Amino acid sequence: MSVAVNTGAPTGTPVLRLTDVNTYYGAIHALRGIDLEVHSGEIVTLIGANGAGKTTTLKTISGLLHPRTGRVEFDGQDVSHVEAHNLVRRGIGQAPEGRRIFSRLTIHENLLMGGFTRTHAENEEQMEVVLDLFPRLRERLTQKGGTLSGGEQQMLAIARALMTRPRVLLLDEPSLGLAPILVQQIFEIIREINSRGMTILLVEQNAIQALAVASRGYVLQTGHVVLSGSAHELRENETVRMAYLGED
Q1: Residue 89 belongs to some domain of the structure
Q2: E-only strand ranges, the chain
């Protein structure tokens, strides 16, 4: 796969920017000079095979990992070494891969855990916003998270991330393990969240769905960005079509 292409990036200052980011797991060089931008109001997707570095990129942005070299900027400020809980307060929210809800807590308690950095009044207000987006959760507020279906747990994971009142929402494999009809529902929810002004960075192995909702995308391979462009450009790219869209 050749490096390179027009990024299709919008003009203006991005809300999120990674510049030559190199992240390691011990001696393992996981991210190798990652450059990417996300502008306000966009959905940007990261696609690639398992082990390409997609989740590591999100962890580096959210402060769960720190780059050894390079910069992560949020709102124009270097946050490369800011701790994760402080990045939540600044406005970076994440729904992690595998949902990671609190299975023994109720839906209501899970949502309050998401809002732990906010005041009671802010949580009351945001709770209504979130439950309007996820009416199925409103119907089950006293139900324990571990008893929910896979699709409902994914809704709860996204809702919990929204309780932080983020300016940028990181979504890691939201369709993983879901039946096709539930995948459609989750992506409709992602569109709705974005239509309300939320900026989203989406990691997703379902490249067809990801490129259908995103405005731009980056293709990762073994820790490198090997291709980037508008969603339309990536959908039409022969290599992407063969490797990720199941087309020949």
Answers
A1: yes
A2: 16-25, 28-38, 43-47, 69-74, 77-78, 92-95, 168-172, 199-203, 216-221, 224-230
Give me the domain span that covers residue 167. Answer: 16-101+161-243
Token pair, residue 82, equals 């800011």
Per-residue pLDDT of the chain (248 residues; tens, 9 = 90+): 333 333 445 656 799 999 999 999 999 999 999 999 999 999 999 999 888 999 999 999 999 999 999 999 999 999 999 999 999 999 999 988 877 888 899 999 989 988 888 888 888 889 899 998 898 898 889 999 889 888 888 889 999 999 999 999 999 988 888 888 888 888 998 999 999 999 999 998 888 889 999 999 999 999 999 999 999 999 899 888 887 765 54
The answer to whether residue 28 sits within a structural domain is yes
Is residue 208 assigned to a domain? yes
CATH of the domain at 60: 3.40.50.300
pTM for the whole structure: 0.88
Residues 6+ apart with CB under 8 A from 183: 175, 206, 209
Domain count within the chain: 1
